[in-house]
Design goal:
heterodimer; A: mainly alpha; Serine Threonine Protein Phosphatase 5, Tetratricopeptide repeat; 3 domains; 16 helices; 81% helix; globular; B: mainly alpha; 6 helices
Chain lengths: 310, 158
Amino acid sequence: MNDYELEKWLSHARQQMAQGNTYGAIEYLRRILSIDPDLSDAHALLAIVLLDQRRIHAAQHEANIALTLEPELPLAHYANAQVLIAHRQFEQAESHLQQLLAMDSHVPEYYRLLARLYSLTNRSQQVLPLLEKALEIDPEDTDTLVAYGEYYLEQGDLAQAERWAFDALQMEPEHSDALILMGHVLLQKGDIEQAREHALWALRQDPDNPKVLYLMTAIKARTNFFLGLWWRYNTWMGSLGSGRAIFVLVVAFVIYRVATIVANDFGEPGLASIISIFWLILVVYTWLGPVIFRKSLEKEMKGVALSKDF
Amino acid sequence: MTSTYRIEDEPQSSQFSHLVVNPFWPLLGLMFGGAWLAWPWFVVNGFAVGSPTRWRELGWVIGGFIGSTVLAVTIFVLYNNNVIHSDSSIQYAILVLLVWKITVSYTVFTLQARTFELYEYYGGIVRNGIWVLLLATFLGRKAVLTLLPFKLWILVMS
């Protein structure tokens, strides 16, 4: 196996990533690393794909290998920055991004990721200059247009968000993040049906994208109160990380148990029973929620055709 | 071309893969059977699924039994010294023990669930754990909890 073949597979992996096929990309990268386990580019790319699959521990492992193998590799710093953002270790992530920009200040992705980091750390006034820089480098980069739209959506400026989403979709009509952005804009404007169509179209383009599931849920939350409530709970728990999520579950259980003991202590066995029944319903709801949500999503994916207007 | 590179969180090959169940079943095992059922089941499942964190899971389970024993002994000491005597104070004391067991179980479950998802995605065979759960709940529970005539045994194992 020569370097040319490995490069070809690396390029295939990048294509798969661009198409949102994370499993396909992983298989190419696995093949490459089976032959050359010291190829830092492949480790760094693998870290990014694993992160897309929300396998953040494995992603961190791969990003660290990439950086150890080649400490000056920009892609390794980029992967590390992404992983650290996922771990909410913002200071370290920022340090990697600053190093990246010192290495090469002409890559729009670096500015976008730094903008995202600033947005996550409530430094929104620093976001726009970075996006302007990214746009200046490549005015036709759809990802930057979407980043603008997402920024304005966060700021609550629907008109601006819609303008950027529209521009992005004109440039690339099947860009999943642009479709998702437009979906959110339409949802906030109250056009649930159009928002749903955008979400379904994005889902067809990029079924692994967690953002699209988030949009679907936001739509469901507007149309089905119970499923929406479950999804909000699920998203919140997911954002906590496993350690804190376990803590929340245990605290909830303690509150329930203490409440029943106190109710019995005050001579209110009826109230204790009501609390127990309520707890049982809550447990069943959180267990059945994912199953019902998945089934309803599958049903929608099968049964819905996009309207002619779309 | 055979793929050999293994990503850190992926399951390793195991000769006991025919015993794999969704880790949700051992978690239910804690609720319906007790720690005696759930924790060893988690360990067997961790090795069967080839979990890269199986030794950590085993460590949690061993720590779980040691912690439960320490807590149960403390409850008995406090009870014998009349520190806890009312019904509700006994219930609060047992709640501490229960919280410990739930924390250990959820931690092991979370560790194992990551690998299990990948195992299932790559077409691994998964058994239905309901029969083990039913047998253990209706037949095993009583047999295990009455195996030794000590209340400490019941508190630790239940």
